[in-house]
Amino acid sequence: MEDIRGFSEKGNWYKGNLHSHTTNSDGRLTPSESVRMFREHGYSFLAITDHDRYSDYRADFDGDDFIILPGYEASAVLYKDFGLKKRLRVHHVNAILGTSRMVREAREPLPEHLEFLPQRVCFKEWNGAAVLRDMVERMRGMGFIAMYNHPIWSRVSEYEFAGEEGIFALEIFNYDTENESGTGFDTVHWDTMLRAGRRVWGTATDDNHNEGLFDDSCGGWVTVRAPELTHDAIIENLLAGNFYSSAGPEIYDWGVRGGRAFVECSKVNRINFIAGGEVGDGTTVMGEALEDSLSCGEYKLKGRETYVRAECVDKYGRKAWTNPIFLKK
């Protein structure tokens, strides 16, 4: 079995949030206040993704140590009836501005700064997969990349999103919805997609609204390995899966070496290796009870796994997730 690096050998680490809201939709902080908060917490980039309203604040906030990823969160809603009060299901999909080449080659022009893009509204029933397909096609046609958000919270079934090949990532941890209603973890859906052969990355985000009801900022993020802090470099390495996601622990290295999957991380309590393949594939490396005593772990591959990914879990239950390494075509 060949050795495989989970991250590029060279590059820098850049921490960022891919899902946030401001006063341009239902957030409490202005864009300026939001940028200030994330910069103070060591972030290098921020995607401002207000509901159905595109924004591009690069000219206002980009600098040598911090950049904005323009975007918006697109919505489609299935209502029980024409009263527009009872939502049965929603699709929330983040549109994040793609690389300069993607924008140049796009079929449609970009929206204007602060342009409103109306949500799609359905009543009583819908073809959820077809609705999502239309949303993603529209985004990609304008030069955006698409990330599917919080499916547990959205009340959607797997068949309504898991087959969509136009998304580059699934939001596997949402700090806001976890605090709101315990609906922030979506790794079960992720593994279902991976075991079906989908090549999709996992992201952790805040989805912060800063309404004061509970803490929803700086609790979920991605850390991207990239040669430089530029828009194209961050997007290219997001698309390549050259990042990890976290709600606490740090991951320093990860990959396959000598027939074993390995991960090196900050001190944690346990390390899970989740694998596609046969029943029983994968393992958990346990540290001392209630102590963060592990800084590395490994799993001897059996040779039949289709993919492997790692989770590093500290004593408080906070996790960091690698992206999968695909072992079979």
Description of the molecule:
The protein has 329 residues and is α+β, with helices and mostly antiparallel strands. It folds into 2 domains: 11-247, Alpha-Beta Barrel (TIM Barrel), CATH 3.20.20.140; 249-328, Sandwich (Immunoglobulin-like). It is 19% helix and 34% strand. The protein has 8 helices and 20 strands. The strands form 3 sheets. Strands 2, 3, 4, 11, 12, 15, 16, 18, 19 and 20 form a 10-stranded mixed β-sheet that branches. It has a 6-stranded mixed β-sheet with strand order 7-5-6-8-9-10. Strand 8 (144-148), helix 5 (151-154) and strand 9 form a beta-alpha-beta unit. The longest helix is centred in the middle third of the chain and has 14 residues, at 128-141. The protein starts with a strand and ends with a strand. The model has no long low-confidence stretch (mean pLDDT 97).
Mean pLDDT: 97
The name of the CATH architecture of the largest domain is Alpha-Beta Barrel
Question: Which bin fits the share of residues in helices?
Answer: 10-25%
Q: H/E element string?
A: EEHEHEEEHEHEHEHHEEHEEEEEEEEE
Strand content: 25-35%
The count of domains is 2
CATH topology descriptor of the largest domain:
TIM Barrel
- Gross morphology: globular
CATH superfamily of the largest domain: Metal-dependent hydrolases
Count the DSSP helices: 8
Q: Please tell me how large the radius of gyration is.
A: 19 Å
Tell how many strands the DSSP assignment holds.
20
Distance between the termini: 13 Å
CATH class assignment of the largest domain: Alpha Beta
Spans of at least 5 consecutive residues whose pLDDT stays below 50 are none
Structural class category: alpha+beta
Main sheet attributes: strand count, strand direction, barrel closure:
10 strands, mixed
